[in-house]
């Protein structure tokens, strides 16, 4: 099984990808990624919550060149492939940034329905990591 890019960021349930957020009690703002328990300052209990697996594409762009450090992917111009990054607005009121997969940039429209999914991120040293992404619904 491919290693996850970070523990506690998301989980998969069959075909469904669930992002994990948090809040400090009912009525508190929801955050993603979830706050770590050790960051609590005695101001309420931290509640981990499953975020909606659907949302709306708020905006997007393409990455046409190798990003500066601390980018963990290949720094080789021959190995680099452009990719799409977007912000998806979830019903919880969050804007979540992530890779957009499953559609070419010219097929995307701001306001279109999106769902969470996963994709593989290849590091510069060849390690494959599973990360969350968004795809058109």
List the helices and strands and how they pair.
Blueprint lengths: L2 E2 L5 E4 L2 E8 L23 E4 L3 E10 L19 E7 L5 E6 L12 E10 L5 E9 L1
Parallel strand pairs: 1-9, 7-9
Antiparallel strand pairs: 2-3, 3-4, 5-6, 5-8, 6-7, 8-9
Protein name: ChsH2 C-terminal OB-fold domain-containing protein
Pfam families: OB_ChsH2_C
InterPro entries: ChsH2_C, NA-bd_OB-fold
Summarize the structure.
By secondary structure, the chain is mostly beta strands. The chain is about 0% helix and about 45% strand. The strands form two sheets. Strands 5-6-7-9-8 form a five-stranded mixed beta barrel. The chain has a three-stranded antiparallel β-sheet with strand order 2-3-4, with no helix packed on it.
Output the keywords.
single chain; 137 residues; mainly beta; three-stranded antiparallel beta sheet; globular; ChsH2_C; ChsH2 C-terminal OB-fold domain-containing protein; NA-bd_OB-fold
Protein model, in words:
This protein is mainly beta. It is built from no helices and nine strands. It has strands at residues 3-4, 10-13, 16-23, 47-50, 54-63, 83-89, 95-100, 113-122, 128-136. A five-stranded mixed beta barrel has the order 5-6-7-9-8. A three-stranded antiparallel β-sheet has the order 2-3-4, with no helix packed on it. The two termini are 26 Å apart. The mean pLDDT is 93.
